[in-house]
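Checklist before submission:
- one chain only
- standard amino acids only
- sequence pasted in full

Submission:
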Amino acid sequence: MQIRARMSMSADGYVTTPSGWPALTADPAFASGESHGIREFLEDCEAALMGRTTFEPALTNERWPWPNLDVFVLASHRPSGTPDDVVVDSDPARLLQAMRAANQGGDVHLIGGPRTIEAFRAIGALDKLELVVLPLLLGDGMRLTPSLRPDTGLELERERVLPGGSVEIVYAVRGAGDLPGREEGWSPASQRP
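Returned file contents:
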């Protein structure tokens, strides 16, 4: 089982639009559940993991977004209307144990947002960070950092151009000490004169 975070990002570094929607939704080439390589990505996934802010809008959707996936939510409380088979916990380590116990060999799609990604990165459970860089500029919105620590080590695994001009970039997540030129304890602040 690998935990794979996949997010879209504008060319100027925003993961949401100024109004809070995922950056992907601003791309004219976006087709829900169809575009930007999502079908291929989900082929290897058996579970979805997200924070409460990402999860709650699904409770009022006409269509359940994860019909064939086990769903795990990092939240301080169980949102009203949450289906019984959705696992909710406030502790990332306990939620990780629950995912491992339920796992049948597939991967986990960590949908986000950035704070949830960082919570799992911080306990060493984030395996991949997959970014879909969109050919558009948003000018404002939420960035992946500062929630995700800037000393997170990333090792390029692959990239590909997607229809519509987006680029998918897949990184393995490593500790900062695992990167060439960065010793344990490295931080952006330690590099300032």
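Reviewer check: The beta strands are 3-10, 45-51, 70-74, 87-89, 107-112, 128-134, 153-161, 167-174.
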